[in-house]
Amino acid sequence: MKMKKLYLACLAAGFVFMACTLARAQDGGISASDVAGVPSEFAKVEKEPDPALLGGWKCVYQRFRPKTGDYDPEPVEFYLAKYGDKFGLYFYRSKPEGGGKVYRGWREFTINGKEITSETGIRFFTEGGKVFFSWERGQKEKPAEMTRIPGLDK
User: Per DSSP, what are the bridge partners of residue 83?
Assistant: First the structure.
């Protein structure tokens, strides 16, 4: 009888562990361990970034799908920090459709003062003391206002 209770307790603990792991995987995003150490790529700097862009930022971008006319919520995050005389930008984006593809890692963005851009049309910028995300893909979607990622301050 004691063995059965021990077995059930271990089984329950295993289910709790799996649920927590799955919740973290779905939560995704940038963690402190992702940005620990030195970046593998650095940003191109045309003009030093607005200090408001430093640290971690996140939003849920409403991506328009022309084929269906629907909007898909896509979590987007970035972390910008200075490393000596260079800047590193860690990027995260999760696509819900198509099996949930995730884009993450250090990326070579271009920094130009109040704006950070990529060759793919991704844009982070400051306006009125706030930080925004937009993605220029031939359609004009409303920029998403970003909020700080707790624990990833400048």
Answer: 86
Whether 77 and 124 map to the same domain: the answer is: yes
Query: What are the E-state strand segments in the chain?
Result: 44-47, 55-65, 70-83, 86-94, 102-107, 110-112, 115-117, 122-127, 130-135, 144-145, 147-148
Alpha carbon distance 19, 132 (integer Å): 33
Query: The whole model's pTM is what?
Result: 0.78
48 and 23 in a single domain? The answer is no
Q: Is residue 114 part of a domain?
A: yes
Tell me: the pLDDT tens digits for 54-97? 999 999 998 877 788 888 889 999 999 999 999 999 999 998 77
Look-up of token digits 């950070």: 116
Q: Which residue range forms the structural domain that includes residue 19?
A: 1-28
